Amino acid sequence: MAVCLLPAAAVLIWLLAPAPLPERWSESEAALIASFSLSALPPLRPDPSNAAADDERAKMLGRQLFFDSRLSANGAVSCASCHRPELAFTDGLPIAVGMGPGRRHTPGLLGIAYSPWFYWDGRRDSQWAQALTPLETHFEQGAGRAAIVRLLATDPDYKDMYEEIFGALPDPARLPDSASPLGGDAGQEAWRMLDPGLKHELSAAFANAGKALAAYQRKLLPGKSRFDEYADAVARDRATRQGDMLSREEIAGLDLFIGEAQCVNCHNGPLFTNHEFHNTGILPVFGQLPSLGRFDGVRLAREDPFNCLGEFSDAAPGQCAELRFARDDNELAGAHKTPGLRNVTLTAPYMHTGQIATLGEVMRHYNEAPTAMLGHNEAKPLGLSNRQLRQLEAFLHTLKAAPP
Amino acid sequence: MNFRLPIALALLFAPVLAWTGEQAEFSVITEGGNRLHISSDLSPLEINRMHSWRLRLTDADGAPVANARFEVQGGMPDHDHGLPTRPEVTDEVEPGVYLLQGLRFHMPGRWLIEFGIGLGEDADRASLEFEL
Questions:
Q1: Could you tell me the maximum CA-CA distance found in chain A, to the nearest angstrom?
Q2: Rounded to a whole number, what is the distance in angstroms from the first to the last CA of chain A?
Q3: What is the CA radius of gyration of chain A?
Q4: How many Cα atoms are found within 13 Å in the side-chain-facing hemisphere of A282?
Q5: Helix axes A248-258, A386-397, angle to 10 degrees
Q6: Is A325's CB within 8 Å of B109's CB?
Q7: Is A329 part of the contact surface with chain B (CB cutoff 8 Å)?
Q8: pLDDT higher at B74 or A185
Q9: Does residue B102 belong to the interface with chain A, where contact is any CB pair within 8 Å?
Q10: What confidence category does residue B10 fall into, taking pLDDT thresholds of 50, 70 and 90?
C-alpha cells in the first residue's frame, strides 16, 4: 500500500512545492530588475511649455491651490478631494465624484510628470493643461475661468504670490462673476459676451494657475519601497535571495513579472509604465458603451487651446514633438494609458473606469486576455496557475511606499 | 568550402537585416537596389524616449539620392500593434540626407519599420527589423 502511495505523494509534493527559484538572476534579468529601481529614475526633464514648472514660488502657489476648495463652484471640491495624498493621490472610488458623478477612475499623481500625456486617453499634453480641465468641467470643480482668476485677484496672498511670478493680474472690477467657455449655459453666454482682449487676459491668467498647479504636482514622486532596496541589492550582487528583503513568493512573482507573465512589456522603467496607450480588452462599465480611449484623446489634445502648440504655451513649436508626431488612427480605439504600478495596492479599484475591484481580479483578467468589445486586445492569454497569479500579486505589494 | 549559399542567403535577407551592434546605426538595401543608411540621435536605442533618425539614401554607386519622399510605418508584429507615434521626414538636411522626426518605441521586443520611398514617378521600399 505504502509503495502505491509513494508515487502519488511525490506527484502531490511536486504540484504543491514552491517552484524552485534560480540561485542567481542572469545578467540580463539583473539589469532589467535594476532598471525598475527608483535609483534608475532620471531627473525630471524641463517642461518647455511651462516656464514656471521648476520655480519654487510657483510650486508654493500651486500647493495652496491644489488643496483650496474655493476653486470650485460650490466651494466644496478641491483637486485634493479626488487626489488624496494618503491614497497615492487617488480616491478609492471606481469613478471620481466631484460636483457630481464623473466619467473616469481617478489616476494617481506620483511620478506622473514623467508622462508626455495626461488622462486615461491622453487628452492633454502637459500637466498644466490637464490641471485646468477639472477646474472648469461642471461635474468636477466647475468654477470657470473668470471665477478662478477673480479668486487669484481678490485673495491678497494669492495675488502677491501670483504677481511675483507671472506679473499683473486683470483688475477684478473688470471681471464677470462667472464666465467660462466650458461652463453651464449662463457661463458660456457670459463668456461669449466678453471683450476678446479680456478673454485673452483671463485665459492667460487661468493658464498660469494651471502652470502653478503643475509646478507643485510635478514634484510629487513615489517614495522608496521594499522592492527598490531589493533591486539595488541585485544590482550589486545577482543572488536572488537578498537576506529577507523579499519573500520567496514575492521573488517568484518578480520572476513572472519580467518573464512568463509579460507584464514588463508595458509596465517598464522605474515607474512601471511606458506611458503609452494599449487596448487590453477591459470591458466597459455595465450598461455603458466602450470608451474610444486614445482614439478620442489625441483629437481632443490637438483641439485643446492650452496645448503645447497653443498661444498660452511657453514652448517653441519645435519643442512639441509629442503633439506634432502623435498617432491618430483606428488602431487606438479602446486603448487607454498604462498606469504606473508603484503603490498599486493603495489605488483600488483598477482600470480607467474602476471596472476591476481587486488586484486578484486584475491578474485573472490578464491571464485570460478576453476579446475586446472595441478594437483588439493586444494581450494574449498567459495560462498561469492560480498560485502564479498569487505570486504576481505578492510582488506588487512590494511596490508600496510610505506617503510622500 | 563553398561560400555561395551563405552569400546568396545574406543577399536575400539583406533588406531586413541590419543591426550594427550597440550603436544605433543600420544599413539596408532597398528593393530597388539603393542603400538606406540610418543613424539615430539616440544611441544606443532605448524605450520610451522621443528621438530622430537621419536617413542617408544612396544609389548602387554610392551617389546621394536627393528629393526622395518618405512614408514611414511600422510596429511590433508579435503584438499586433503599430508605432506609438507618427514619425515624419521633415527636412532634407543635405542632398540625399533626410531628417526623420517623432520616433519613440514603447516596448521591448521585435520592431519592424517599413519605409515607402517615392523617387519622382517611381516607388521604392525598404524594411528594417531590430530587437530592443
A1: 97
A2: 62
A3: 24
A4: 28
A5: 100
A6: no
A7: yes
A8: B74
A9: yes
A10: very low
CA distances from A33 to A99, A315, B95 (A): 43, 35, 45
User: Is the peptide bond between A18 and the residue preceding it cis, with omega within 30 degrees of 0?
Assistant: no
Domain B4-131: state its class.
mainly beta
State how far the Cα of A94 lies from the Cα of A105, in Å rounded to an integer.
5
pLDDT category at B3 given cuts 50, 70, 90 is very low
Nearest-CA residue of chain A relative to B77? Answer: A378
Q: State the cell numbers at A3.
A: 509503495
Question: Could you report the per-residue pLDDT of A22-76, keeping only the tens digit for each?
Answer: 899 999 999 999 999 999 999 999 999 999 999 999 999 999 999 999 999 999 9
The structural domains of chain A, ordered by start, are 21-41+224-293+333-397 (1.10.760.10), 56-217 (1.10.760.10)
What does the pLDDT read at residue A186? 85
Parallel, antiparallel, or unpaired: how do β-strands B97-103 and B51-58 relate?
Answer: antiparallel
Give the pLDDT confidence of A102-132 residue by residue, as tens digits.
999 999 999 999 999 999 999 999 999 999 9
Give me the residue spans of the domains in chain B. Answer: 4-131
Grid cell 464666465 is found at: A179
Q: How far apart are CA A156 and CA A151, in angstroms?
A: 9
Residue A122: left if φ>0, alpha if ψ -120 to 50, beta else—which one?
left
> Cβ of A229 under 8 Å from any chain B Cβ?
no
| Cis bond before residue A349 (omega within 30° of 0) | yes
Contact of B43 with chain A, judged by CB distance below 8 Å, is answered with: no
Q: Is A264 on the interface with B (CB under 8 A)?
A: yes
Percent of chain A with pLDDT over 70: 95
Query: What cell does B49 get?
Result: 524616449
Cα–Cα distance list, B93 to A69, A110, A192, B56, B99 (Å):
53, 41, 46, 10, 7
Q: A103 burial class (0-12, 13-18, 19+ CB within 10 angstroms)?
A: middle
CB contact under 8 A, A268 and B81: no
Q: Is the ipTM of this complex over 0.95?
A: no
pTM for the model stands at 0.90
**Taking residues A173-180, what's their average pLDDT?**
90
| A384-399: pLDDT as tens digits | 999 999 999 999 999 9
Taking CB atoms and an 8 Å cut-off, how many pairs form between chains A and B?
A: 55
Closest partner residue to A321 (CB to CB) among B48, B80, B101 is: B101
Residue A266 in contact with partner chain B when CB distance is under 8 A = yes
Instruction: Give the DSSP per-residue string, A47-99.
Output: -TT-TTTT-HHHHHHHHHHHT-GGGSTTS---HHHHSBGGGTTB-SSSS-BSS
Phi/psi at A234 (5° precision): -65, -35
Using CB atoms, pick whichever of A266, A324, A326 lies closest to residue B107.
A266
